[in-house]
């Protein structure tokens, strides 16, 4: 049984990926410092898969702890690195925190992979590296634009660090550029747990429907899009999780053609903010209290993925609909709130 270390494995995307890895026959080890997650997620995972993953509460910024961890776990076959700080606005206010957490952790992990002869590495990148795209849908060959935030910059720099590390060692990597992950596991036992006021659209919608937020602000209806609101590529988190499994299988089977590969992970379909709002209303039968307000600084009008590379090379395709994702997000919100 292949052993995969999942950093940030109690977080939103990490926890769904742990479930898919376990259900695909991998043994999973998790590292998380619980800075943006709860230990209860471990129970949720275990309840779904009936397998308790090995968990270590560890802060990957502490190099000595990372070294000790790898000393104790000498038989890891691959690493999936989710652990990072991810709030764009916070990264503007506190850039050094983001550079420290997102870059030091990556470097320490890559160094240990080298020392321990671990060859297979998957990294959580983001469509944010494309900035405002020149053409849609966005292919992996689109230029990486000047970063719009320190957070975005950490993803660009991370991809470069990984590629440089791969060029001088036996390390092989896949960077997955996620578009907009939404939704929750169908069991409603794991899902997204934003701390404080949600910054992302779907958690804000579900919290508004649950009565925790009074009103959803739709940031702008004067963009150059059919209904004037921004367009994004919303991908069900379970589909996204499954992309990690096939990416790891590709590395483990020596099928990769390049030592540092990059794939878009999206549905290929763009959906506007207002379309998301109306789809949510239709699914839940609830009318959502929303208001059109000013544009949010830094938002780009339209972003959606070209998915041919992931379809053809990884043999992966998003299977779940926007409606599936919204419905699961709503069931998760009700579960969390005891509704
Ligand atoms: P998340 O915050 O839910 O998960 C990250 C996990 O990493 C958390 O459990 C947190 O406690 C842990 N962590 C953070 N710093 C750590 C450290 N120093 N040591 C150990 N654990 C640490 O975020 P997520 O949405 O699951 O995102 C996972 C990855 O995907 C991140 O790298 C993020 O930047 C990237 N990503 C997310 C999105 C998105 O919209 N959610 C989109 C694109 C890329
Ligand atoms: C989606 C749309 C908002 C909230 C972010 C990061 C990106 C990546 C994915 C990590 C936008 C609108 C939102 C609200 C709204 N993360 N909106 N009212 O900005 O596309 O991407 O998450 O890598 O880097 O920037 O996602 O969910 O914040 O917004 O109208 O209360 O919803 O303007 O058009 P975004 P989001």
Biggest pleated sheet: 7 strands, parallel
Percent range of helical residues = 40-55%
CATH superfamily placement of the domain at 3-183 and 236-266 = NAD(P)-binding Rossmann-like Domain
Distinct small molecules: nicotinamide-adenine-dinucleotide, UDP-4-deoxy-4-formamido-beta-L-arabinopyranose
The span between the termini is 40 Å
Low-pLDDT parts are: none
What CATH first level of the domain at 3-183 and 236-266 would be assigned?
Alpha Beta
* Count of individual beta strands: 13
Number of helices: 11
Structural category is alpha/beta
Identify the overall geometry: globular
- pLDDT averaged residue by residue: 97
As a percent range, the share of strand residues is 15-25%
Strand order of the largest sheet: 3-2-1-4-5-6-11
Find the CATH topology of the domain at 3-183 and 236-266.
Answer: Rossmann fold
CATH architecture label name of the domain at 3-183 and 236-266: 3-Layer(aba) Sandwich
Q: What gyration radius follows from the Cα positions, in whole Å? A: 19 Å
The helix-strand sequence is EHEHEHEHHEHEEHEEEHEEHEHH
């Amino acid at each position: 049984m292949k052993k995969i270390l999942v950093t940030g494995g109690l977080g939103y995307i990490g926890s769904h990926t742990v479930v898919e890895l376990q259900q695909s026959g991998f043994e999973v080890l998790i590292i998380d410092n619980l800075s943006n997650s709860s230990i209860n997620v471990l129970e949720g995972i275990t309840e779904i898969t009936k397998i308790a993953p090995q968990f270590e509460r560890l802060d990957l910024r502490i190099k000595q702890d990372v070294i000790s961890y790898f000393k104790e776990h000498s038989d890891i076959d691959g690493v999936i690195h989710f652990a990072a700080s991810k709030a764009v606005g916070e990264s503007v206010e506190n850039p050094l925190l983001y550079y420290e957490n997102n870059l030091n952790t990556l470097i320490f992990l890559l160094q240990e992979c080298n020392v321990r002869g671990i060859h297979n590495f998957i990294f959580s990148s983001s469509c944010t590296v494309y900035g405002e795209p020149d053409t849609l849908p966005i292919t992996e060959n689109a230029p990486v634009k000047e970063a719009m935030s320190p957070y975005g910059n950490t993803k660009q720099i991370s991809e470069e660090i990984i590629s440089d590390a791969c060029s001088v060692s036996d390390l092989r990597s896949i960077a997955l550029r996620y578009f907009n992950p939404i939704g929750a596991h169908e069991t409603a036992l794991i899902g997204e747990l934003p701390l404080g006021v949600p910054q992302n659209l779907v958690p804000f919608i579900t919290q508004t429907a649950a009565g925790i937020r009074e009103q959803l602000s739709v940031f702008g209806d004067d963009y150059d899009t059919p209904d004037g609101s921004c367009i994004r590529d919303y991908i069900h988190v379970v589909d996204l999780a499954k992309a990690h499994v096939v990416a790891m299988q590709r590395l483990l089977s020596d099928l990769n053609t390049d030592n540092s590969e990059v794939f878009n992970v999206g549905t290929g379909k763009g959906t506007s903010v207002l379309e998301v709002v109306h789809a949510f209303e239709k699914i839940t039968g609830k009318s959502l209290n929303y208001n059109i307000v000013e544009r949010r600084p830094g938002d780009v009008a339209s972003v959606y993925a070209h998915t041919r590379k992931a379809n053809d090379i990884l043999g992966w395709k998003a299977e779940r609909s926007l409606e599936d994702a919204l419905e699961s997000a709503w069931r998760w919100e009700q579960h969390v709130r005891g509704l």
